[in-house]
Structures are given as structure tokens and as C-alpha cells.
Amino acid sequence: MSIGETITRKRKALGMTQKDLAEKLSVSFQAVSKWETDASHPDVELLTALAEVLGTTVDALVGYRSPILADYEERYQTSEYYWGIEPNRLCYDILRLRPPVKPYKVLDLGCGEGKDAVFLARNGYRVSAIDIAENGLEKGRILAERCNTRVDFFKADISDYRLTEKYDIILSSGVFHFLRPDIREEVTDNLKKNTNEGGLHALNVFVAKPYLKRSGEKKGNRYEWKSGELFSYYHDWHMHRIDEELFDCNSGGRPHQHCMDIMVAEKKVK
């Protein structure tokens, strides 16, 4: 996606006109129009302000492809499913607490190859799912087709993606360690705001423990959470589940352990 296409998509998602964006940046709307058609590009000095107004990052604006993205695109190249096709246990928490007596609207953030999204869709939920890796999304589409169900898969980066519509259930597993500490409160506030009353968040995060050795993988742009940090952002919600677990992992080809905080929380009806 070109920088012009990115600007257009972000602007429209925020409900802004070209004139609105131009006024916020103190430029002419003709300049914005030229950016969006790629007839010209924003000055370097404007990129930081432009990214802030659009709720994204400079890297995302200019189309920087991180080593992490390359890593996951490579993992998802094979016909086999890297993470398998068995659903995460959080899916069963969702089934137990919000059985699909009606088509609840679900968002899977960082869906990988789509196993959880497809499982929930098969059980009667209306599911949308995002991920940054196109290879994963394509395998999710294939899995959904094989299972004769529908999931709305689309590409987005959780670091700069912000909700503009409401959901009943938000699921995310093994993804939030890509959120920088300085944007975590903003991201969780956005998710909470765009959840219907009585809705659920089913989330887990990797937490740092001094006694756990690194797996040897490159840790750039991965930020482990502090124990209990996730729960603190949901102090005003009802907690159905709060757990901290150690588990073995072999991702990256080297056996290692992780510690994970797991939470299922409900937005109470006011």
C-alpha cells in the first residue's frame, strides 16, 4: 500500500475530510489531495504530525516492513498451520460465558492463521479478524472455506489500528507484546470504549519473569508486560477469569518457557 493509499484509508476511518486533515496540519487541502493520489508526498518534517493526527506511526505511513512481519510471513508460507488448528482455551471461555444464542459480533486481534476466528464463526458468531501478515490471513480464508463458514479477514497492525465501531466480544491471544508500553493504555481504552455493554474481552499477554531464559529469538519490537499489568487496565470491569501460567514453547525452533497473564473481563451494564 502506498503512502497516499494509507493516508486516505486512515483519514476516512476517522471520518475526516481532506479539508479537516489539511487544517489540522496547516496545509492546503490541495496538498492533501496530491498526497492521496501519490502526485506528491508529505515533507519529512510533517510525517510525525501527520502520523499523530491519523493515529498511526511513521513506519506504518511510509510502508516500512519490519523484521517481525518478515518472520511471520515466512512462518505462514507452508501449507501446514504453524500454530495448528485447535482453538485457544479462551474460545471455550467465550462459548461458556456468551453462548451464541444470537450472532454476537466478535473481533479477533492478531488472528495469525485464523484458527480461533474460524472456530468461533463455525459456532455461530459473526467474526472479523485482523493480522499484519498477509500469508496468515490467506490461510485463514482457506480454513474458513474448508469449514464452510465466513470470517471477515483484513490486514491491519494492532499498533496503529483503532476501532471505529462496536463489538460484543474482543479476543486476542499472544499478540499484545507487540504493543509498546507507551500506547497500551490508549489501545485498551479504545477497545473498551468500542465494546457494547455486557461485552467480553478475552485476552492474554506475555509477562516478564527474571527466572525465565530468552528463547534466543530476536526480541526487537517485542515488549513483555509486567505481571498483573493487563488486569490493572480493566479495574472498572468485572473479572470472570484472572490467571497466570507458565508453559513450554518451541516456536523459533528452540525449547523455552513463557509466562502468560490470562484475563476474561466483562463490561458491566451501567
What does this structure look like?
It is built from eleven helices and seven strands. It is of the alpha/beta class and 270 residues long. The protein folds into two domains: 3-62, 434 Repressor (Amino-terminal Domain), CATH 1.10.260.40; 72-266, 3-Layer(aba) Sandwich (Rossmann fold), CATH 3.40.50. α2 (18-25) packs across α3. The protein is globular, with a radius of gyration of 19 Å. The mean pLDDT is 90.
> Might you state the CATH topology name of the largest domain?
Rossmann fold
Roughly what percent helix? Answer: 25-40%
Q: Largest beta sheet: what is the strand line-up?
A: 3-2-1-4-5-7-6
Q: List the quaternary state of the chains.
A: single chain
Distance, first to last CA: 42 Å
Low-pLDDT runs of 5+ residues are none
**Helix-strand pattern, N to C?**
HHHHHHHEHEHEEHEHEE
Count of individual domains: 2
CATH superfamily of the largest domain: Vaccinia Virus protein VP39
Continuous helix count: 11
Report on the biggest sheet.
7 strands, mixed
- Percent of residues in beta strands: 15-25%
Number of strands: 7
Quick check: average pLDDT? 90
The best one-word shape is globular
Radius of gyration: 19 Å
CATH architecture of the largest domain: 3-Layer(aba) Sandwich
CATH class category label of the largest domain: Alpha Beta
Helix/strand/pairing category: alpha/beta
